[in-house]
Specification:
This protein is α+β, with helices and mostly antiparallel strands. It contains 9 helices and 9 strands.
């Protein structure tokens, strides 16, 4: 009995060891068993050593795409006398896992960026509304008080009238028959500018969000004006906060990779030695220029917002766009 139990444990351990062997390890072990170097494999398969290392390290994101990766694996298996039909499922499983991890990291980074941008957007809106309110109060209260003290215009409610008693006394002293007193018309001095109600003030804010002058803004009910301030004003401020910027990255090389953003998109750029050159969230209007040595391995979060060129030659990104609008490509091979 002890002998049978130990035998079963040994078999289970062997099966566990086999299941943990990855596709890259299988290829590497068979290559070493055949006494081949990475350069020899690259020459026979007509690919670069960079791709051979990526295959043996299970770094399939460094390959041009799934179609090329499967072709490389089949040729490698044929060279090593392996069954390609057993290796392709291993590649697909690893590729799915890597894609899920990359998308999860992309989503987390994007959410963190959006949270930071939302905070500064709210602060900007509050500063704008507070500054405009102080300006309105100054124009409608402080300026009026200064004009009244200078005596350039009468105070509101000022009236001039002749009372009956005064009229009778004047006619008696002049020796003329008393006449029916007449009251002078009331003269009320009106301010040059009428006070602005809360509804008009909110409407003025909405007009500014549309790019109109506050004096020409139409009369708007308070409810709709509030909605305008909550939506259009925030959009206008967000648009004004976006400034075109040029991002220059030098990684030591003569190839120029130029990426232009027409919308917000996550981007990762690695060089031919798998070193990370750039990784960040680009905004509309950004221009990223990277100087280095091709090939460049690029991951795009929202590829439709990207235009790309290498050494002045336009690169078609649309052919690499996936269902989720992301894209992974290698340029400069």
């Amino acid at each position: 009995m002890p002998t049978e139990e130990s035998g079963e444990q040994a078999e289970a351990g062997a099966e566990s060891t086999e299941t943990t062997v990855t596709l890259g390890e299988i290829l590497r072990q068979e290559r070493l068993r055949h006494g081949l170097s990475e350069k020899e494999v690259a020459d026979r398969l007509h690919i670069t050593m960079y791709y051979v290392k990526a295959l043996e390290a299970n770094q399939f994101e460094k390959l041009p795409g799934a179609v090329f990766a499967k072709g490389y694996i089949k040729n490698y298996a044929l060279l090593l006398n392996l069954d390609a039909s057993e290796l392709i499922p291993l590649y697909e499983e690893i590729s799915r896992t890597q894609s899920a991890v990359a998308e999860s990291e992309l989503g987390n980074d994007t959410r963190r960026k959006l949270d930071r941008n939302k905070f500064w957007l709210v602060v900007s809106v509050l500063v704008f509304v507070g500054g405009y309110t102080l300006l309105w109060l100054y124009n409608n209260f402080v300026t009026e008080d200064e004009v009244d003290e200078a005596g350039t215009r009468p105070s509101p409610g000022l009236t001039q009238a002749t009372t009956p008693t005064t009229a009778a006394e004047q006619t008696a002293s002049a020796g003329t028959p008393p006449q029916t007193p007449r009251s002078s018309p009331v003269v009320s001095a009106q301010p040059d500018s009428k006070p602005v109600s809360d509804g008009n003030f909110i409407a003025a804010l909405a007009a500014i969000a549309d790019g109109n002058s506050p004096n020409t803004a139409p009369s708007t009910p308070i409810g709709s004006a509030t909605i305008a301030v909550g939506n259009r004003e925030i959009d206008a401020l967000a648009s004004s906060l976006k400034n075109t910027r040029l991002i220059e990255i030098g990684s030591g090389g003569e190839d120029l990779l130029r990426i232009t953003f027409s919308g917000e998109s996550w981007i990762e750029v690695n060089d031919g030695e798998s070193r990370q050159i750039y990784r960040d969230l680009g905004a509309a209007g950004d221009v990223l220029e990277i100087t280095g040595n091709a090939p460049f391995n690029i991951l795009l979060g929202d590829a439709p917002f990207i235009r790309m060129s290498l050494n002045g030659t336009e690169i078609d990104v649309g052919a690499k766009i996936r269902v989720d609008n992301s894209a992974r490509l290698t340029v400069g091979l």
